[in-house]
Design brief:
- This protein is α/β, with parallel strands linked by helices.
- It contains 14 helices and 23 strands.
- Strands 1, 2, 3, 4, 5, 6 and 7 form a seven-stranded mixed beta sheet that branches. Strands 18, 19, 20, 21, 22 and 23 form a six-stranded antiparallel beta sheet that branches. Strands 9-8-10-11-12 form a five-stranded mixed beta sheet, with helices on both faces.
- β15 and β16 form a beta hairpin.
- The model has no long low-confidence stretch (mean pLDDT 94).
Length: 452
């Protein structure tokens, strides 16, 4: 039987092309996607990777062979695909490997209205069908195959975002944007067109080989160029998008990174001003400052596991107005509960441009604690190391433990979380404390146990 375990993860399909998957396999995924979602029409988009047009075209043929009409929107960001899924009311598939190196590609799938397709909401069934068909042969096309047509939604996507955040009245801002040769180079010019922004565009040429740096702003080495340009030009801020432009990272006027937790808190306060008393979702690795700011602004914070399927599910269940993660994924009720880094960036621009102070001063009120950032450790026995950490802290005075996602250890002055990677033999550690010395001490103490 064909083993897809290395490319089908909890939330999407991703692997090396063509070593792990290719166009014939993509065609099977298209057919299986239609079978599992029972869709009579779908929408498909793709990023700038060289393999993306071929893979998305094969997926479209597979979907049409099962009777679904396919709308191809071509080059787009992942949140543009979510916009198409939401506005057209269609299940969708986005061909991208996001921030991963050039040799990878993948599919992010959603149901109509940008609802997630996760392991328990269709992905396992899609995988099972593909494995069966790969071994036994694909089913014969239906008697009336679907059509495949093209449609451009970029202008409509930009108009929707601009209707949600009004930037027309802000003071003029100088903003550097590093698109990393990814899809931000496609979306930013249209979204920002005509706004009071002096745009300094870095690496806007669409190039899936990533000639300048990997399109992964979470890695500090990939924002060095952006930081230098902001400092050199005296810009008000810098924005960095990942490869499929669904995440946005921010640096202030000094070129210093602004933590995604601070951005989450800032956007939460703005959304609560529009929707008083609303619920805001935050994952368990975001800063203590996030639930504090939510409560201070009259909202209800809800803590959840890490991962977009969990965030989206909790948003749907609670009717939340907004959700944020430590990884710079930002989710909006007004965007079908889907994540869009572009909309978060527009909130930052609106907040900064609506007052006279610098960004560093604006975000200081949301950045209240010392944090380690995520630290990865390679381990032979994830379960055993987690058990060792639990044993070391269980029963200590003033310490509480919970296992909502990995293990979180909390006191009145600090907390840390340790989670196992789903795809690699890693444990991921995040620490936060009221001061840097305590954060460093707890970090070193936890790492000593993790690394044995």
């Amino acid at each position: 039987m064909t083993d897809l375990s290395q490319i089908v993860k909890a939330y999407d399909v991703r692997g090396v092309v063509p070593a792990q998957w290719d166009e014939p396999l993509a065609e099977l995924f298209g057919a299986a996607f239609v079978e599992v979602t029972a869709a009579d029409a779908i929408v498909i988009g793709h990023d700038m990777r060289p393999s993306s047009p071929g893979l998305s075209g094969a997926f479209a043929r597979g979907a049409a062979s099962r009777g679904a009409d396919v709308t191809q929107i071509g080059l787009c960001s992942t949140d543009e695909l979510y916009f198409a899924s939401g506005s057209l009311g269609l299940p969708g598939a986005m061909f991208t490997a996001s921030h991963n190196p050039a040799r990878y590609n993948g599919i992010k799938m959603c149901r109509a209205g940008a609802a997630p397709v996760g392991q328990d909401t269709g992905l396992a069934d899609i995988r099972a069908l593909v494995e069966r068909w790969a071994d036994e042969g694909a089913p014969q096309p239906v008697a009336a195959p679907g059509t495949i047509t093209q449609r451009d939604v970029l202008t409509d996507y930009a108009a929707h975002l601009r209707a949600l955040v009004d930037l027309g009245g802000i003071r003029p801002l100088r903003v550097v944007v590093d698109a990393g040769n990814g899809m931000g180079g496609h979306t930013v010019p249209t979204v920002f067109e005509g706004l009071p922004l002096e745009l300094d565009a870095m690496y806007f040429e669409l190039d899936g080989s990533f000639p300048n740096h990997e399109a992964n702003p979470l890695d500090p080495k990939n924002i060095v160029d952006l930081q230098a340009r902001v400092r050199e030009t005296g810009a008000d801020l810098g924005l960095a998008f990942d490869g499929d432009a669904d995440r946005c990272f921010v640096v202030d006027e000094n070129g210093d990174p602004v933590s995604p937790s601070a951005i989450t808190a800032l956007v939460a306060a703005r959304e609560l001003a529009k929707h008083p008393g609303g619920t805001v979702i935050h994952n368990l690795i975001t800063s203590w400052s996030v639930p504090e700011v939510v409560r201070e602004n009259g909202g209800e914070p809800v803590r959840t596991r890490v991962g977009h399927s969990f965030i989206k599910e909790e948003m749907a269940t609670t009717g939340a107005i907004f959700g944020g993660e430590h990884s710079a994924h930002y989710y909006f009720r007004d965007f079908w509960n889907a994540d869009t880094g572009m909309l978060a960036a527009m909130h930052v621009l609106a907040a900064l441009g609506g007052q006279q102070g610098p960004l560093s001063q604006l975000v200081a009120q949301y950045d209240r604690y010392a944090a380690s950032g995520e630290i990865n450790s390679t381990v032979d026995d994830q379960t055993g190391r987690l058990a060792a950490i639990k044993a070391a802290y269980q029963g200590r005075d003033g310490v509480t433990l919970d296992e909502l996602d990995g293990l979180t250890v909390t006191t009145g002055d600090w907390w840390f979380n340790v989670r196992a990677s789903n795809t690699e033999p890693l444990l991921r550690l995040n620490v936060e404390a009221r001061d840097t010395a305590t954060a460093d001490r707890i970090r070193d103490e936890a790492l000593a146990i993790i690394r044995g």
